[in-house]
Amino acid sequence: MIPFLSSTIQILHPGNGDLILHFPPEYLASIPLAVLGFPMAIIFGMLIKQTGLRPLSILFLAGFIPLGLFFYVVTQSSTLMFSKTANNLVIEDHVFFRTTRTSYPLANVDHAEVALDDGKSHMLYLALTSGDRIATGSGWTARKGHYQAADAVNQFISSSGRVQGAPSLHAPSVEYEKKLDAARKAFLEQSTKSQKQGQP
């Protein structure tokens, strides 16, 4: 695959022990939108030019939706910057040439984990010491590099002198949720059995 078109999560070590994860735009996913969107935009643009902006012609604006989705996909990226120097995590999300920035103290980041959706789509989560989980990147996606990115984050946290109980990266977090559900069911069954035995 051409490096420019790759959507694999990039793991960078700029120095000073810092870590950067970059989620590039998913260019391959945007190709069908481009093939569909640009011709539709030209056709509906000509129709609007011919008819003017009348109530009926306003419906033609729906023809620009694939083109809008194309620009959404090719401009959407995310960067996670873990800094030992600043002792924080900064998450930058880019979309439509706008950037939003969120910062967390590094001490609040417990570990990273990967969740598996349908056997193909993954999500990289950051678990905070508060119990909250932060979804990263562009949501559920089939891009590569999720497990490597989680491993890099957990190694970074480990090297920061933190004792953290991250789940194994060899199994998606959904397995841990299944085990948790099984433990809850076993507890409820045991409680119900104890109640029945205690009844006269």
User: What is the number of independent domains?
Assistant: 2
Which H/E pattern describes the elements?
EEHHHEEEEEEHH
- State the end-to-end distance: 71 Å
Under the CATH scheme, the architecture of the largest domain is: Roll
Alpha-beta content class: alpha+beta
Strand content: 15-25%
Radius of gyration: 23 Å
Instruction: Catalogue the unreliable spans.
Output: 163-176
Please give a quick description of this structure.
This protein has 200 residues and is an alpha+beta fold.
Which structural traits does this protein have?
three-stranded antiparallel β-sheet, 5 helices, 200 residues, PH-domain like, five-stranded antiparallel β-sheet, alpha+beta, 2 domains
Provide structural commentary.
With 200 residues, this protein is an alpha+beta fold. It has 2 domains: 3-26 and 76-169, PH-domain like (Roll), CATH 2.30.29; 170-200. The protein is 40% helix and 24% strand. The protein contains 5 helices and 8 strands. The chain has helices at residues 27-51, 55-58, 65-75, 146-159, 173-198; strands at residues 10-12, 19-23, 77-83, 88-95, 98-105, 109-116, 122-128, 133-135. Helix 1 packs antiparallel against helix 3 (65-75). The protein is elongated and about 65 Å long. Residues 163-176 have low confidence and may be disordered.
